[in-house]
């Protein structure tokens, strides 16, 4: 009987892991199923572009995996039973259950309100296609002179604020950040960022906490009101709560704690990649939630699974480190901040149009790696044992 591998989620990490597994293992020995709620792969790093009216190329998962042997199951995951190795799902036909021998958990994350009142009722976000399209519709109906407030000064907030300000110069755009604007960047990068904000007319509120969001703006921690017809919430992400409801060992963030092969420390038949996994990078620092982390995590998990199932004792290791942070500041500007392996800013950087082009190449490359799994290096190996023995060995 074939070894059943189930991949939950087809974002960057899940989609790449599934494609890599298909090119590492012989199709006669494994069944690989990707479970995803949406029919398309979503370029999450471009959701701020979608929100401002730009059209993105749609990539149907069934076409992505055509000819690979990977099966796509369009369904929403509702629960995971790690003791009985089953996944509960629902689709248009109703509730169902999928059994697995090896599980790759890649359900990712969504915008987190951190308990701030009013976020769910009044704020918009760009964490996925439905929410980005909702913001797109709202911005399209916002008249000239309208006010937009972006809450959060991380990468997502910077990209959203500058994209909106560039696409709609007739709007009054502001950004709120808890610390200084781009305070994790080096001095030259911070200066460039401030210059872009000034050029685009973005009002910056630094060292400001938001206590609650209202229909017509946000109230700060010191009681001030920042008026806004549209509030965009980009103040962090939270993982899907399903893992925390299982007996898997999870961190306080709800992420599955994994070893250096992305294998759960409590359940060896479960691997977690992307935002769903808590993995240590250089210096023992947890990898940040990002495509830059999710891709090498997916490589590592797929190669580790393939190695164990095919009886190899040496497991290849993917480079779990950082090289740069890519920030788009609209379509014609950006910052490429080169960083140390553990993600601290170096003096070197790129800015301006060259940085914008660099970021575009990175985004296209990430999407290409998902949509062309058939071009992964082919070293298909045979599973060395029966399914029952393989399950025992992987455990």
From TrEMBL:
<dbReference type="GO" id="GO:0003955">
    <property type="term" value="F:NAD(P)H dehydrogenase (quinone) activity"/>
</dbReference>
<keyword id="KW-0285">Flavoprotein</keyword>
<dbReference type="InterPro" id="IPR023753">
    <property type="entry name" value="FAD/NAD-binding_dom"/>
</dbReference>
<dbReference type="Pfam" id="PF07992">
    <property type="entry name" value="Pyr_redox_2"/>
</dbReference>
<keyword id="KW-0560">Oxidoreductase</keyword>
<keyword id="KW-0274">FAD</keyword>
<protein>
    <submittedName>
        <fullName>FAD-dependent pyridine nucleotide-disulphide oxidoreductase</fullName>
    </submittedName>
</protein>
<feature type="domain" description="FAD/NAD(P)-binding">
    <location>
        <begin position="4"/>
        <end position="302"/>
    </location>
</feature>
<dbReference type="GO" id="GO:0019646">
    <property type="term" value="P:aerobic electron transport chain"/>
</dbReference>
<dbReference type="InterPro" id="IPR036188">
    <property type="entry name" value="FAD/NAD-bd_sf"/>
</dbReference>
<dbReference type="InterPro" id="IPR051169">
    <property type="entry name" value="NADH-Q_oxidoreductase"/>
</dbReference>
<comment type="similarity">
    <text>Belongs to the NADH dehydrogenase family.</text>
</comment>
């Amino acid at each position: 009987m074939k070894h059943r591998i189930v991949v939950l989620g087809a974002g960057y990490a899940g989609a790449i892991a599934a494609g890599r597994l298909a090119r590492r293992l012989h199709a006669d020995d494994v069944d690989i199923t990707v479970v995803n709620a949406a029919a398309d792969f979503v370029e999450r790093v471009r959701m701020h572009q979608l929100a401002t009216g730009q059209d993105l190329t749609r990539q149907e998962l069934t076409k992505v995996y055509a000819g690979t042997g990977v099966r796509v199951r369009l369904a929403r995951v509702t629960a995971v039973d790690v003791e009985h190795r089953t996944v509960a799902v629902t689709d248009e036909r109703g509730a169902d259950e999928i059994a697995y021998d090896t599980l790759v958990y890649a359900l990712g994350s969504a915008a987190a309100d951190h308990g701030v009142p009013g976020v769910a009722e009044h704020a918009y976000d760009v964490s996925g296609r439905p929410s980005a399209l909702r913001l797109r519709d709202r911005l399209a109906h916002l008249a000239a002179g309208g006010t937009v407030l972006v809450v959060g000064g991380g990468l997502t907030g910077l990209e959203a604020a500058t994209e909106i300000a560039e696409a709609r110069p007739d709007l009054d755009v502001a950004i709120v950040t808890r610390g200084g604007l781009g305070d994790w960047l080096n001095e030259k990068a911070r200066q460039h960022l401030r210059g872009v904000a000034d050029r685009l007319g973005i009002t910056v509120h630094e060292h400001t906490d938001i206590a609650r969001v209202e229909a017509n703006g946000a109230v700060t921690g010191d009681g001030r009101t920042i008026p806004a017809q549209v509030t965009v919430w980009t103040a962090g992400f939270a993982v899907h709560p399903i893992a925390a409801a299982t007996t898997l060992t999870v961190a306080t963030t709800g992420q599955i704690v994994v070893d250096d092969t992305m294998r759960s420390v409590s359940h060896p038949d479960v691997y977690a990649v992307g935002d769903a996994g808590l993995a240590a990078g250089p210096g023992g620092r947890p990898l940040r939630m990002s495509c830059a982390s999710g891709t090498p995590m997916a490589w590592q998990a797929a190669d580790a699974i393939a190695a164990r199932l095919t009886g190899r004792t040496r497991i290849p290791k993917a480079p779990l480190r950082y090289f740069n942070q890519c920030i788009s500041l609209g379509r014609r500007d950006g910052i490429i901040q080169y960083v140390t392996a553990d993600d601290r800013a170096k003096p070197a950087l790129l800015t301006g149009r060259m940085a914008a082009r660099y970021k575009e190449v990175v985004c296209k490359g990430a999407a290409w790696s998902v949509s062309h799994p058939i071009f992964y290096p082919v070293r298909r190996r045979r599973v060395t044992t029966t399914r029952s023995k393989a399950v025992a060995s992987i455990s």
